[in-house]
Amino acid sequence: MKKIMVIAGARPNFMKIAPLMSEIARHKKKMHAVLVHTGQHYDYKMSAVFFQNLNIPEPDVYLNVGSGSHAFQTAKIMMEFEEVVLREKPDVVIVVGDVNSTLACSLVASKLNIRIAHVEAGLRSFDRTMPEEVNRIVTDSISDWLFVSEKSGLTNLRREGVDAGKMFFVGNTMIDTLLSHMKVIDRSGIVEHLHLNKKDYCVMTLHRPSNVDSTESLSEIYAILQLISRKVRIVYPVHPRTLKMIKMHGYFSRFRELDNLLMVEPLGYVDFIKLVKESLFVMTDSGGIQEETTVLGVPCLTMRENTER
Fold first, then answer.
1. Distance of CA 300 to the CA centre of its chain
2. Which pLDDT score is estimated for 113?
């Protein structure tokens, strides 16, 4: 029986692993999964509630690495994960997406000669100032199987000289999750709970350092919010790290003073997707939300200089 080690660390990962865990469970005579949660997203609303919403089993291993700089977080995951791999001796390690957990665990597996499967391989923004771009490139270069979610991924990997035998165009597991949970999503009462009317508000998510880590970028965001909030109500589920940056740079009170801006705590998967589905449009710097809005038919304004989607 093959032992498949599945890695998750942050919000986007949870939606991508849910179908994988379900499918592995269907083949329990041939394989079984060991789920490793690195704890990269340490806030409850960013982690545990997603496991509940998506019916993902409790992690077999929880590394609890928490926050930190990219180097600190990556190094800590590597040190903790190496012990897990040496103890569990998996046949395959599956990593998803482009977060620090993806890079760290694939590096450890590669050095220990464990085969690696990368789900959502081949995406490129062609902007190496983005930490995620470095994570993608390195992970793809050391993976044995590259599972590609969109055709541009195949083009990018071919351009980089990757062996065609490693590449598999399989579609998007995050969208599998979205479609399979639609009935549950439709039952969410989050729109009423926040006293909103359908198609009478927009949703914003911002978390990337390029948008929230400097006074200059937050000043530009604030100006955008001033303009848009005159026209439509903005609902902003705020990432914990983003909230810290907003406060540190002195913009928290300014954001709060905007009459038509509603700042809320991070939402679980079901409530968040329902909020997006019923919105007039979305403003985001998230890659995954660009894909989700496309499937839901909701206009998306991508607040970045470039995108890998």
1. 17
2. 98
